[in-house]
From TrEMBL:
CDD domains: PAS
Family annotation (InterPro entries): Biofilm_reg_signaling, PAC, PAS, PAS-assoc_C, PAS-like_dom_sf, PAS_fold_3
Top-level taxon of origin: Bacteria
The protein's name in its UniProt record: PAS domain-containing protein
SUPFAM superfamilies reported for this sequence: PYP-like sensor domain (PAS domain)
Residues of the PAS domain: 155-174
Alphabetical list of Gene3D superfamilies matching this protein: PAS domain
SMART domains (alphabetical): PAC (SM00086), PAS (SM00091)
Domain PAC residue range list: 312-363
Amino acid sequence: MYSAAAICRSTHLPIPQEGRIITSDDVFGHLPDIRCINGGIDAAPAPPLDGAGQCAGLPGVLSEAGGRLPLHPKTRRSRAARYFGLPDKEISSGAVVMRWPAIYNKGSKIREEAHPVAKHLDKFTQPFRDSPIPFALAEILTNGSGEMVDLVCRFLNPAAAALLGLSPEEVQGRRLSQLGSERALEQLAPMQAVAFSGSSASFPYVTAGGQTLTVTCYQVMYGTVACLLDPRSGAGAQSGALPELLPGADLELNREGLRCLACSRQLCQLTQWSRRALLDRGGRAFSALVAPADWPALLQKLLDAAREKRGVDHDFRLLRRDGGAVWVNLRAEILSTRQGATVFRGVFLDIDRLRREGQDLQAALSRRETALRDAETLLDRMPVGLCLLRRRPDGGVELLRANQVLSRLLGLSPAALARRLAEDPGSGLPTGEREELLAAAVRSRECGLPLRRACRVCLGGGRELCLSLHMSWVEQPDGSWLAYIACADISQEAAAQAEHQIRSRMYDLLLEHTSLLTLDYDPARDLAQIQRHSTSGRRTSRTVSGYLKSLLTASYLHPEDRRRLAGAVRRAITHPGTVSCTYRADYEDTGWRRYQVSWMSLFDEAGNVYRLLGKAEDVTGRRAAAEHFRQLAARHRRQARACLASARLDLTAGQTLDAKAASRHLLRTLFDRTAGACLQQMASALPEAEERARFQALFSPDALSDAFAEGVFQFSMDHWISTGKGGPSWVRIEAEMAENPDTLHLEVFFQLWDRSFRRLQSTLLDTLTRQDYELVLTADARSGACRAYGPSAGRLPENATCRSLAAWYFQQLPPSHQRTALRKALSLEAVLSQLEAVPSVELVLPAPEGAPYHLRCSPLEGMPGVLLVTCRRLPAGTPSPAP
C-alpha cells in the first residue's frame, strides 16, 4: 500500500494523523472522501465492483504496485478500463488505479487527461451551449448496492447557471455534495431511476435561494442524465440569481453552522479567491472566510436575525487569499426558511477604507483627548504660573484659564484671582512700577512683540515677590486679544544677582591696585585670554593664539623659566588638579619680577580637561618679606642667649609663641601665655609710673598694630627694671614687627638688653686715657662673646667671640710649633683655668709684622663672669718669644 505520507507528498498535503478524515477538497477538489487507515489511504464510499458489472465505485486502498487497486475477481478488465477511460494495459488482473474521474496516478507522477466520456456527451450539450433553455448534464454516482450517493455536474449552460445562481466554470466536473447540502440530493432522488432505466421523469426542486423549479430529466448515456429546468410561476421564489455587479452570496444557517451556497464574481474579486476555491472553503464552513475574532459576533447576529425574522447589518473582517483581511459590511435578508435552515442573501460592501479611516480618526481623537489631558496636567504641574487673559473689544479683561501655581504664587483662590484680574489687572504692583508696566504691555500689543520684564508684586502681610513676566498677544477675528502670560518667582535669583553685583564690585576694589594676571586657556584651540591688573589700577586684556608654543619664545619671560612655565601648563592638562609654579617675568619693563601662577582644571562630561583657569600674582615683595621674616626669626634665636630676656608674640592670634630669660625671676615677672597679658606684665615690671605709662603707650597691642599699618616696624626704650638679687638694672627693650608669610599673622620680637656696661665703659675710658692699648675688650666667661672699646671698636665685628678672634689671629701666623702651643694657651678654657690660681694671665704674642704683642687677661672688678682683655705692642727691639 502507498502510505499516507506518499499521497500527501504527491498532492502537497500535510501528513494526516491516524483516523483523520481528508476530504476531497484537501486533495484535488473532486475525489471521494479519504480516510487514513494504518498509514494508508481509504476511499471509504467506493466498494469493489460486483460481478453484475456495477461500475459505481472501486475499492480505495492503494497498493504498492504502481498505485493500483485490487479488482474483484469477477470484474472484467474491459469494463474497468471503460469506466476509468484507461487502456487495457494499464489495468492488471490484480490491481487498478483508484477511481479518479479525470486524474490517475501512474507511478509517482500525477497528470490530468480528458475524460473519454466527454466526447460522447458533446452531441447532447452542443445544441444547449448558447440556448436560453436551462439545460444541465449530471452523472450519477452510486455505491455497490446501486444506491445514488452523489452527482457530478458534466455540463451547465449559462441559462441554467443563472437560474441556480452558479457559475458554469466553477461547477463543471464538481460533485453536488460540494455545492449543496444532503437535502438537495434527496430532492434529486428520482434521477437515479432515470439514469439506469432509460425512462424520464419530472419533479420539483427548490434551489438554495428558495426558488422552486420543475426538473425534467431523461437518460442520455448509462448513468448520465440530461435535465431541463423550468421555473414555476407564482412559486415562493423571492429572487433570482445573484447579481454579478455586487459582491453578494447566499448563506445557509443551520444547526451545523453557516455555509456559503453561492457567490458572485465581485465577491471573488474582493476576497481574491476563485469562485471554486471560495465555495470549497465557504461551502463547508463560512467561518474559514471570517477573521476568528469577528466570527462569534457575526454568528450571533445571524442567529438573532433568523430567530426574529429580520435582516442583518453587521461589520466584520473577511479573510483574503493573501492572508490579509478586509472590512466589509454585510447586509442580508432572509430568502427562505425550511426544515431548521435559514438562507440569507447578502451583499458584502467594502468598507475597509472607511473603517480604517474611522479607526484612524478615532485614534487621532483619542490621541487628541490624551494630549488635551496631558496639556491640562502639564499646565497645572508646570513650576511657573500660567494664565490666559482675554481683552474684549470694549477694553474689559476676563480670565480664561489659570493654573494652580499662579494661585499659589499670589496667595489667592482661583475665583479671587479671576475677580481681581477682571477688576484691575495691575493690582498688586507697586505704585511706581504699575503705570510703566501697563504702558509696556500696551506697546507690546501694538508692536506685536513679546514682553519680558521683571517686576515686583506686593502680597498681603507686607510680603513682596519678584516675578519674571513673559507676555505675548494674539489678535482674534472678533477684535479681541488673547494674552498668554507666564510668570515665575525669581526672588532668590534677584537677591543672588544683587549679591553678585556687590561681590563683583568688591572684587574690582580688591584687584584695583594689585599686580595680578588672570588667564583663561582653551587646550583644544591653544587659545588664552589674559587680563593683567597693574598697581596703578590699569587693566589690559589680550588674546594669545598658540599660547603654549608662544611661551618658549616670549620675550617678557625669563629665559630660564620659559620651559618650566610651559611644563606646568602641560601638567595641568595631563594631570588634572591644581598646579602651581613660580617664574620670573617683566610685563611692564620695570625689571624682572617673580610671579607665582596657579592653574585649576575644568572637566567636561567625559572627564577630559576642556579649560584651564589660572592666576599669576606678583610675589616679589612677598618673597622679600618672607626672607626678611626668616632672617629676623633666625637672629632672634641667636641673640636670645646674649640678652636678659626675649619673647616672640603673635598679636593677631593673641598668643605667646616663645619666651626665654636669663633667670627664672625674669621669666615669671615678664611673660605670660597670652600676648596681651605678657605686655601687661612687662609694663608692670617697670618701677617708675612714668616709664610704665610710656611703655604701655608704645608697646600695647593696638599701638603696635597701628604702627605696623603706618609702616613703623622697630621700637626701643631704655628703662630701669628689677632683675631680682642685684637690684634694678638699666636695660634697653627692643621690638621689631613682621608679618609671618605662612600664617599672615603679625608677630613682634622682643629682646631685653642689659645696659649696665655704660658705667663700665666710663671706667675703661679713664684707663685708656692713661695707657696706650692697641685693643681693649670685655669677654663673657660663659659664652665667649666679646665687645671692643676705644679706637678698635669699629674694626671688631659685632658678633665677635674669643674663639673667632683667636682663629683670625692664628691665620696671620705661618705654621709652626709655636703657633700650636699658643693656640692651646689662648683658648678660653685654658685662660679661665689659670685665672683660678693667679689674678691675671699675661702672654707675649708674636706679631705677623713688627714688634710682638703683650696680652693681659683678668677678671673685671664688679662684673662677675666678665673678663677684661688688653693688648699693647712691646717696644721695638723686643725679641719675640722663643718657640
